[in-house]
Design brief:
about 130 residues; alpha/beta; 2 domains; three-stranded parallel β-sheet; 3 strands; Transcriptional regulator; RHH_8; Ribbon_hlx_hlx; Arc_rbn_hlx_hlx
Length: about 130
């Protein structure tokens, strides 16, 4: 295998690591003033929203939509992967065999398989940045 073929194969193995899975959610707690909470309850009571959570999710999605261009530009500029990323022992062993390291940059959630040893992780993961859980 030529050096170019080796580099191309190694490059492809890194891309194979980047898999997206279905949605998951994270529970958060927020504090609201009594007036804000009363207004939310009024809107729920009047039928605008099915419950408090429905209103809060709608408000968050609205704000994320308002800032979608900034998020997209930043994700592209900083080379983040969107979604859920899982790194298996086989994935990291393939990187180790190729003599490569991984820079994990995820906007969402990243997980590493339970059977990955600390030594394997240290040998193959150069850095980790995760925005989300």
């Amino acid at each position: 295998m030529s050096n170019d073929e080796h580099n191309e194969a190694s490059h492809m193995s890194v891309h194979e690591l980047r898999r997206k899975s279905g949605d998951s959610s994270e529970k958060i707690t927020i504090n609201l003033g009594v007036v804000d909470l009363g207004q939310i309850d009024l809107l729920v009571q009047e039928g605008f929203y099915s419950n408090r959570t429905d209103l809060i999710r709608t408000a968050i999605r609205s704000q994320l939509a308002n800032h979608a261009d900034v998020v997209k530009e930043t994700v592209t500029r900083k080379s983040f992967v969107l979604g859920l990323e899982h790194y298996s022992r086989a994935d990291l062993e393939a990187l180790q065999s190729a003599g490569e390291t991984l820079q994990i940059q995820v906007l969402g959630m990243a997980s590493i398989a339970d059977d990955v040893t600390p030594e394997l992780a240290l040998a193959t993961i150069e850095s980790v940045v995760v925005l989300g859980p």
